């Protein structure tokens, strides 16, 4: 138990980094972290460094695992199952693909072209941006293990239920014809050496960091402002747990944004610290990652409007239900 607590404090929450940045802010910059400016500077530097360290380590590890599951192998594995079993497996495979919602769309096209049921591919499409292995450790580093595990579990349930409903509705005719006619080549799976997998993992780290660094800076900047400059009374008035509309507002406020869990976590951290309900915060994070406007626009190119709005409706309803549930029982996780 002592080892676990040390691991949680020093490796996930990085208390050593917190103290180091505090020394930097107070000794070098001459600012007290109790002041608004000093607190904001400390929040920004500490969170940016912490997120980039965790991001690099986690994406490298996940990408190494992912190297054993190229698209051809993933399609072959999923093709052996049907029904809810296939949806569960598809959602789980989505957790080892650290993609944002937009980069998941090409895989959705590939899976559908290969003949996989659309309900199975939608389970993957929901799970891939919403839940990944990195989210467990990142959420634990900001909040705690109970919240991290609960987030992943409800995210997987949403992916499985959403894909299953779409399967039952028999909506194959609402996928654009070019998706089915897209020729899929049967490529022999490449055998990678350990060095190849390491190189692949390093390249994935560089590629993903290049894509998300700006969102991390923006997210941490917003989080720092919320944490130190926006009065708690104002935030609780708008998004307080006692406001019946807070979950609805948070769920749909995230849709215009384009970010992933790395950019939304600092905002979520600051909102929770200001007294916003856990369910409201999780709804915001899920809205940003699973229903970003760019991904909806891209998906609109490959499915017809009816299927698109059914997908958006199912995911939105699921996120809202998750939000109200966590607001009601959030005290169990804090």
UniProtKB/TrEMBL annotation:
InterPro entries: DUF318, MFS_trans_sf, UPF0718_permease. Pfam families: ArsP_1 (PF03773). The keyword Transmembrane helix applies. Keywords: Cell membrane, Membrane, Transmembrane, Transmembrane helix. The chain crosses the membrane at residues 12-31, 43-65, 86-109, 115-140, 147-166, 212-230, 242-259, 271-296, 308-333. GO terms for cellular component: plasma membrane. It comes from the Bacteria. Its main location: membrane. It is found in: Cell membrane. It is a multi-pass membrane protein. Belongs to the UPF0718 family. PANTHER family: PERMEASE RV2963-RELATED (PTHR42775). This is Permease. It comes from Alkaliphilus oremlandii (strain OhILAs). The lineage of its organism: Bacteria, Bacillati, Bacillota, Clostridia, Peptostreptococcales.
């Amino acid at each position: 138990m002592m080892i676990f607590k040390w691991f949680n404090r020093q490796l996930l929450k990085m208390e050593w980094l917190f103290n180091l940045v505090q020394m930097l802010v107070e000794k070098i910059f001459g600012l007290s972290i109790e002041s608004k400016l000093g607190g904001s500077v400390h929040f920004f530097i500490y969170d940016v460094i912490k997120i980039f360290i965790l991001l690099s380590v986690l994406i490298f590890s996940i990408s190494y695992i992912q190297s054993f599951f190229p698209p051809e192998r993933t399609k072959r594995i999923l093709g052996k199952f049907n029904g809810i079993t296939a949806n569960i497996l598809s959602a789980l495979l989505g957790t080892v693909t650290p993609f944002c919602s937009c980069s998941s769309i090409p895989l959705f096209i590939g899976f559908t072209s290969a003949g996989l049921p659309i309900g199975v591919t939608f389970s993957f499409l929901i799970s891939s941006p919403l839940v990944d292995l990195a989210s467990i450790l990142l959420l634990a580093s900001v909040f705690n293990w109970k919240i991290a595990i609960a987030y992943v579990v409800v995210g997987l349930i949403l992916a499985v239920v959403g894909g299953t409903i779409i399967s039952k509705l028999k909506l194959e005719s609402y996928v654009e014809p070019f998706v089915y006619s897209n020729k899929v080549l049967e490529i022999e799976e490449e055998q990678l050496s350990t060095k190849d997998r390491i190189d692949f993992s390093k390249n994935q780290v560089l590629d993903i960091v290049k894509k998300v660094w700006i969102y991390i800076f923006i997210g941490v900047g917003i989080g720092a402002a919320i944490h130190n400059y926006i009065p708690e009374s104002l935030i609780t008035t708008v998004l307080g747990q006692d406001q019946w509309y807070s979950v609805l507002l948070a769920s749909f406020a995230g849709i215009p944004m384009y970010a992933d869990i790395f950019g939304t976590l600092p905002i979520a951290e600051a909102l929770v610290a200001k007294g916003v309900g856990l369910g409201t915060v999780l709804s915001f994070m899920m809205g940003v990652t699973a229903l970003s406007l760019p991904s909806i626009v891209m998906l609109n190119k490959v499915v017809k409007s009816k299927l698109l709005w059914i997908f958006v409706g199912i995911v939105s309803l699921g996120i809202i239900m998750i939000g109200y549930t966590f607001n009601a029982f959030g005290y169990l996780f804090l």
